[in-house]
Amino acid sequence: MAMAFDAEDDRSDEALLALYGRGDAGAARVLTLRLTPLAFRVAARMLGDRAEAEDVAQEAMLRLWSQAPDWQAGQARITTWLYRVAVNLATDRLRKRRGLPLDEAPEPVETTPGAVGRMIEAERAAALDAALMTLPERQREAVILRHLEGLSNPEIAEIMGVGVEAVESLTARGKRGLTAALAGRRAELGYDDD
User: Fold this and answer.
1) What is the pLDDT of residues 22-54, one digit of tens each?
2) What CA–CA distance (Å, rounded) separates 51 from 54?
3) Which of 49, 86, 143, 154 falls 20 to 30 Å from 194 in CA-CA distance?
């Protein structure tokens, strides 16, 4: 009986990567379905550009595939490694952009038409994305990984190569920066000022 390959496969990331390292293309399909959205989400939040985020996610996955034969189980979680690679690739792209005038930087775009509630959520998401782009890179990384990806401070510390205290500081400063960037927009974004 053929096994269906999807992201719900109960094998661990490490087991699947080891299988891929030995030539199992099915294991690669499962990992691709499972992990590419993770790399894409992080890159999209950091870059504010879906096309660039897709490129970053593909590059991150290619790097994972090149690591498969030599992967040392137990040294790092695959997701932690992938977050680090995606963050680094996105940061590299942001650094290359620095020469662009601000008005040429891409704006986050929400193209999904829908009910009023969806439109409000899209406007809120765009406002958050724009506010995230105002933060310094390291603060943006910490906030995205903690509050949007739901990682723990120790996981973020490992990804960013800093201590837990530094993560806490970066996250706190990032949240203050977001509050300042979004100040005065509560009513516009549909939040009551009660």
Assistant:
1) 888 888 899 899 999 999 999 998 888 889 999
2) 5
3) 143
* Residue found by looking up tokens 């723990």 in the block: 152
Token couple for 109: 């775009």
d(CA 55, CA 104): 19
In sign, the C-alpha dihedral spanning 73, 77, 79, 80 is negative
As a whole number of angstroms, the distance between CA 128 and CA 181 comes to 9
| Two structure tokens written together for 11 | 């094998």
| Encoded tokens for 18 | 């080891």
Q: What per-residue confidence (pLDDT) applies to 22?
A: 86
DSSP letter string, 133-187: HHS-HHHHHHHIIIIIS---HHHHHHHHTS-HHHHHHHHHHHHHHHHHHHTT-TT
Tokens in use for 187? 């009513």
The CA distance from 67 to 78, in Å, is 10
Q: Cβ-count burial of 132 within 10 angstroms (0-12 exposed, 13-18 middle, 19+ buried)? A: buried
| Model confidence, pTM | 0.60
